């Protein structure tokens, strides 16, 4: 019986499905998983590194848990050895540990020979005193370890060609004559990222001690191509729900901004880490003029700039199934022509046309912005002003100075707050429900807007990676995002009906 056969038999006989519809049932390895195991353990040259790259939800973490148990108390267990699984985040590291823990607790035999230490995310194999730990880059726990087996979960999350956490794990294995490193992950976003360099090197070098299995869809495939789905999802119809892929593919075809995310997470293709937020045609289809009356309910976003840059104040008026957008933009008057020439943006023309308000002098004066917001609050029923915390103290001071009472709320610029707000912008644009009036400054911001994604596919606007100014889109996104907000920060404590003086 070969090493691989022993590992497969151990997994299928003793490891139970840890969660889902088949929880508690024997874990049945799919053909692609068995092939990966065979290529690792029956490699005549001996395997030092093994890579498996498939799309999300194809049973990667469960496979990791099963393999580490085979090294903990199974046929690959070594006396007094150490095993680690590593991930970028604590949550991802915890996931592998929790799956292994569930497998242990579900099995009458494994629960007798494995001691679980939840506080340390650790398992102890009592048969040969083997220790397993789940570690993360966030916790900084890679140093001081000496694992004979290191399993990296979602190493595709690493951005750039190197990573100190991964390097610490690799060097930690140097004490062993024949260590094994296994990386199981969705592809990295770009060719220059760490996991991409590993996969490309494996393909080019053809090192017999490196096992590399890459499941990816053809580069230029259509989103609806089911053969392409299967190429990237060997567990399609098993661990990976076919209907889930159908739904997301249809969404990606309707919404161009979703295409890159679908290709990355569902087709396991490399993409650029940044992508335009929306197409020009989609945005232009929403250019109907806003129809707003005095006293109308509105929500607003404020994106303050540096002293010499573009400031955006954008109001959104919900009326039935339509959202009417009224933006205001501000720039210093001094040097406007030179700024227009150097940045190749017609600020001076837009100022003459009334799309841009110039402020006398060389810098943005917070008082002017505060008065514009105060005037809007008096003219309309301003429910909430969402703002970026940067430079907001000067603005608030000016509001207090003119006695304005404006309901305000800080709006985070990270994935947590931006992702749902961007989804809302995108939905309204797709539904032709955002009447932005073809404002040229806002059009520029929309055309320049670039989003970046976290490993989960959540998006945020990224000023650093955008082509040029996007302030108007940031303010618009905040305005739409704050509509569902349930908290308000008042510009003065006396404007808060729940405020009470301490006695």
Question: Brief overview, please?
Answer:
With 503 residues, the protein is an alpha/beta fold.
Helices and strands in order, then pairings?
Blueprint: H1 3-14, H2 31-41, E1 49-53, H3 60-72, E2 82-87, H4 90-106, H5 110-113, E3 114-117, E4 122-125, E5 130-136, E6 149-153, H6 164-172, E7 180-185, H7 194-205, E8 210-214, H8 226-232, H9 242-254, H10 259-265, E9 274-276, H11 280-284, E10 297-303, E11 311-319, E12 322-332, H12 336-343, H13 347-353, E13 357-359, H14 366-379, E14 381-387, H15 392-401, E15 407-410, H16 415-430, E16 434-435, H17 440-448, E17 450-453, E18 459-461, H18 471-481, E19 489-490
Helix pairs in contact: 1-2, 3-4, 9-10, 14-15, 16-18
Global structural class: alpha/beta
Q: What is the beta-strand fraction?
A: 15-25%
What count of structural domains? 3
* CATH C-level of the largest domain: Alpha Beta
Supply the number of helical segments.
Answer: 18
User: How many DSSP-defined strands?
Assistant: 19
Describe, in plain words, how this protein is organized in 3D.
The protein is an alpha/beta fold and 503 residues long. The chain has three domains: 3-214, Rossmann fold (3-Layer(aba) Sandwich), CATH 3.40.50; 220-272, no CATH class; 280-495, 2-Layer Sandwich (Nucleotidyltransferase, domain 5), CATH 3.30.420.240. The chain has 18 helices and 19 strands. It has helices spanning 3-14, 31-41, 60-72, 90-106, 110-113, 164-172, 194-205, 226-232, 242-254, 259-265, 280-284, 336-343, 347-353, 366-379, 392-401, 415-430, 440-448, 471-481; strands at 49-53, 82-87, 114-117, 122-125, 130-136, 149-153, 180-185, 210-214, 274-276, 297-303, 311-319, 322-332, 357-359, 381-387, 407-410, 434-435, 450-453, 459-461, 489-490. The strands form three sheets. The chain has an eight-stranded mixed β-sheet with strand order 3-4-5-2-6-7-1-8, sandwiched between helices. Helix 3 crosses helix 4 and helix 9 runs antiparallel to helix 10 (259-265). The N and C termini lie far apart (81 Å). The relative contact order is 0.10.
